[in-house]
Design brief:
alpha/beta; Rossmann fold; 6-stranded parallel β-sheet; 3-stranded mixed β-sheet; globular
């Protein structure tokens, strides 16, 4: 199969590229570094020539508006994809994104899902929980001097390598014409405990304090709205297993 991966240089996209190539698929990476600008629509026509399936693992960068970004990317993929004869569009989304429409990132994912559904290419949407690496992100951005803030929340983090493999599984399976079951890690975790575990493993110093984030996103983190659905498919790597394989002192 000839597969194109939008966002193929990003975290989940790169894992999808690796999994697809390992299985013998011909893979095309759709990224600015490869001469393809999915927001502007440049380079897309040539890149999608002969493509059977497109995996959209693209992610918004910097201060871009998430909804505008994902709508532009999907528009490029479906417009040029229809002309090229693409048979399947697989979209990576986020578990619970429709439950917090006021949160910009989640609103962007909802817009992406809607655009894919209306695009005219047979499609599959798969929502994933946060990756294990989210603990490292929280450690890095939510801090005040030596104090690091961890939002109080319930997560079921998943291996990004397994997410990449799941995207390829769905590409091989054919269109669901809707949502596939949610994809999540094998067990629920406390975000504050995740951040503490990451800091200890990485040799970082500082105090981790849990805090209740105000508004809809904070409530969703605490009340389980961002946990996978009853029919979810689960990965195998636990967060503690991911922590154990991190380089020590980094």
């Amino acid at each position: 199969m000839r597969i194109a991966v939008a966002g193929g240089t990003g975290r989940a996209g790169a894992e999808a590229v690796a999994a697809a190539r390992q299985r013998g698929h011909d893979v095309v990476v759709l990224a600015r570094s490869a001469g393809v600008d999915l927001v502007a629509g440049t380079g897309v026509t040539d890149a999608l020539a002969g493509i059977d399936a497109v995996i959209d693992a693209s992610g918004v960068q910097g201060k871009d508006d998430p909804a505008a970004f994902h709508e532009a990317v999907t528009r490029s993929l479906v417009t040029e994809g229809r002309a090229a004869g693409v048979k399947h569009l697989i979209v990576l989304s986020i578990v619970g994104c429709d439950r917090v429409p006021a949160f910009a990132l989640y609103a962007g994912k909802v817009a992406q899902e809607r655009s894919a559904a209306a695009g005219g290419i047979p499609y599959t949407i798969v929502r994933s929980t946060q990756f294990h690496e989210f603990a490292r992100q929280v450690w890095g951005f939510a801090k005040l001097g030596p104090v690091h803030i961890a939002p109080s929340g319930r997560l079921q983090p998943v291996s990004v390598r397994e997410v990449g493999a799941r995207l390829v599984d769905l590409a091989e399976r054919g269109p669901a014409e809707g949502r596939a079951p949610d994809f999540a890690g094998p067990r629920e975790e406390s975000l504050a405990d995740m951040v503490r575990s990451y800091a200890k493993a990485a040799g970082e110093r500082g105090l981790v304090l849990p805090a209740s984030v105000p508004g809809a996103i904070g409530r969703a983190q605490r009340d389980g709205s961002l946990l996978p659905g009853a029919d979810a498919v689960f990965g195998t790597q636990t967060f503690s297993e991911w922590i154990a394989q991190l380089p020590r002192g980094r």
